[in-house]
Amino acid sequence: MLKAARNGDQRKEKPQRDPEGRMSLVEHLRELRNRLAIGVLAIFVVTVVAMFFAKDIMALLTDPLPNCLEEEPGSGRCADLVQQGLTSPFTTYVKVSLFTGLVLASPVWLYQLWAFIAPGLHQNEKRYSAAVVAFGAPLFLTGVYVAHWLLPRAIPVLLQFTPDNAGNLVTVSDLLDITVRLAIAFGFAFELPLVLVMLNLGGVVSGRRMLGWWRGMVMGIAIFAAIVTPTDPMSMLALAVPVTALYFVATGIALLNDRRRGRAAGPELSDDEASDLDLTPEPIDAPGRVTPPRSPGDGGPRRGGGFDDVT
């Protein structure tokens, strides 16, 4: 019975992790499932709490829309906020709460994303990547704040296209969709430097290569900003300029990291370059006398011809 109890305790022991972070495919899938479960649970908890403050959050999100009670009706510079449908108020509450949960729980799910990638990094790379991930949540929240700052300036520009003597009716659902889309787009766009630095820490891409991408990256960021933002140029510049600046900051960090890594590893040679060899001959020591082996009568092994086994 004691032996069976010991076997049971051994079965309960968790398998030790590989010090180099190597895992099988099943272990990778199990790790991904656990990380996703923690991230979704954090978003769900914050969403439930946010439902108690949904009205206040909704007032904050709809504040950028100029109300016709404050502006001159028929001027085309204001809009009336309405809701359509019997279930629209409840659906709006759920959308606002879920959006709040996604934003406020960003530190948790960003950390889970890093924790899933970190086992594949070396110990020194984990230390630097942990410092980089500490900026992930502030970058995401900064992008959300920039989107909220931009909306009061972009919406009046869009409303100026209204024909004369015509009014605007904007549903709460449409306004929230634009707000959420911009906030998520800005938040993930501000994560670009974090992703690039993590790829550099993992040895996937070098800083020199990132610097060589600058023309394509600037053009790609501008196209992305033109797609996700409203039609006015100010909104496009408000997204493209800071993201481009963050891209060059990430490139600078990657170049510094490559230089540090090169100093630690020593000088590197190209494929067709031979390393320096010291071909100076060294003096050879004078040969020493070999002690004759003992005779079989002395208890030693038998030798032949006065030589040992090696000779």
Structural commentary:
Helix content is 62%, strand content 2%. The protein is mainly α and 311 residues long. The chain has one domain. Helix 2 crosses helix 4 (88-104), helix 2 (25-50) runs antiparallel to helix 5 (106-117) and helix 4 (88-104) runs parallel beside helix 8. The longest helix has 33 residues, at 233-265. The radius of gyration is 33 Å and the shape is elongated. The two termini are 60 Å apart. The relative contact order is 0.09. The mean pLDDT is 75.
Q: How many separate helices?
A: 12
Helix amount: 55-70%
Number of E strands: 2
Tell me the series of helices and strands, N- to C-terminal: HHHEHHHHEHHHHH
| Overall average residue pLDDT | 75
Rg computed from alpha carbons, rounded to a whole number of angstroms: 33 Å
Detail the topology: elements first, then pairings.
Elements: H1 2-12, H2 25-50, H3 54-62, E1 80-82, H4 88-104, H5 106-117, H6 123-133, H7 136-159, E2 169-171, H8 172-189, H9 192-201, H10 207-212, H11 214-228, H12 233-265
Parallel strand pairs: 1-2
Helix pairs in contact: 2-4, 2-5, 3-4, 4-8, 5-7, 6-9, 7-8, 7-12, 9-12, 11-12
